[in-house]
Design brief:
Distance between the termini: 33 Å
Order of helices and strands: EHEHHHHHHHHHEEEEEEHHEHHEEH
Radius of gyration: 21 Å
Helix content: 40-55%
Number of strands: 11
Strand content: 5-15%
Shape: globular
Number of helices: 15
Largest sheet: 4 strands, mixed
Number of domains: 3
Length: 329
């Protein structure tokens, strides 16, 4: 796939977070449709809740039976955010408002591609006149059981990545913004028109034509592109800093060299600064007290491992080159 962009698309581009998208992607992670990529501890902790959902709510299995990698998935069950600050309830309302005719069309397209036949109970759900609400109920249950308890930390990770990515696009242009989004994306510079190449099965060329691109960071998901109406042009990509999702390391985990050198909690703060962050963002992400994070940052700064930068009214911390070296895997 080729996505053509122009300098005018920089100003029109937006960034958004999708709590509903995280709920669907969390289900896929548990179902083995996504790789763990450092999220093994989270998967193990939430596995009982996931298994309870599968036992008690057949629509969860029906939802998962629709989802696959490398092919079309019904868009109405995971629409991209519209760029406004919608919470989960607002996004779910969009799903529930899907006209039945649209849902039927998308489900038919989803199910006609070569794949394993869905189980009988799932086919009954797809044929139900309440199919939209049944699948929306499954998404809501996944949000409540799997994502909502960790949402403050998840949101902190996503917001940090969002601010970082927006700054790169505005300061350095498309090449810098796309460079490390995903290995399947490649920036091809041009004169007035540059191209984002996506390594997928779509041979088409799509032009933003001044409408800009919507960037959506994700913790549990992977690369998704939206290029079909009525959705905005959008790219879902894996956020940075996901490895620190669970906060301070489990006391039962064997300590590594950095833990032994600076202490587990201080090492967690240093690792969490893969992207610049404010003190409050680190508190939300790591589950530590405000005073504890502040003390650790003061020591790390005195040791030359982090520095402070002011962005508007907020103060953000980032690792120095020495801090990067110590925090490297």
């Amino acid at each position: 796939m080729r996505i053509e962009v122009t300098p005018a698309d920089v100003a029109a581009s937006r960034y958004a977070i999708s709590p509903l998208g995280e709920a669907v992607s969390a289900l896929r992670l548990h179902a083995g449709q996504r790789s763990y990529d450092g999220l093994g501890p989270w998967v193990a902790r939430t596995r009982p809740a996931y298994e309870r959902l599968r036992r008690e709510l057949p629509a969860v299995g029906a939802l998962l039976a629709l989802l696959r990698r490398g092919g079309y998935n019904a868009d109405f069950i995971q629409p991209p955010p519209d760029g406004t600050a919608r919470d989960f309830a607002g996004e779910l309302a969009v799903v529930r408002a899907t006209p039945l005719a649209q849902a039927r069309d998308e489900l038919a397209r989803n199910l006609t591609a070569p794949r394993a036949t869905p189980p009988a109970y799932a086919r009954r759900i797809y044929a139900s006149p309440n199919v939209v609400d049944l699948l929306a109920d499954a998404i809501e249950a996944a949000w409540t059981a799997l994502v909502e308890p960790d949402w403050p930390r998840l949101r902190a990770i996503l917001e940090r990545d969002l601010v970082h990515r927006a700054g790169r696009l505005l300061a350095y242009g498309w090449g810098a913004a796309v460079a490390d989004l995903d290995p399947r994306l490649r920036w091809v510079p041009g004169g007035d028109v540059g191209v984002i190449e996506v390594a997928d099965n779509d041979p088409g060329t799509h032009s933003l034509a001044g409408e800009g691109l919507l960037f959506v960071p994700t913790v549990f998901g992977t690369l998704i592109t939206y290029v079909e109406p009525p959705w905005p042009y959008a790219i879902v990509y894996r956020a940075s800093g996901v490895a620190e999702l669970l906060g301070p390391p489990d006391p039962a985990r064997p300590g590594d060299a950095l833990d032994r050198l600076v202490g587990r909690s201080r090492a967690a703060v240093l690792r969490a600064l893969a992207l610049p962050a404010t003190t409050s963002q680190l508190v939300a992400q790591l589950g530590m007290s405000l005073g504890g994070v502040g003390d650790h940052l003061a020591v790390l700064r005195e040791a030359g491992l982090v520095s402070r930068i002011r962005a508007g009214r907020s103060v953000r911390y980032r690792r120095t080159p020495l801090g990067d070296a110590l925090a490297a895997d």
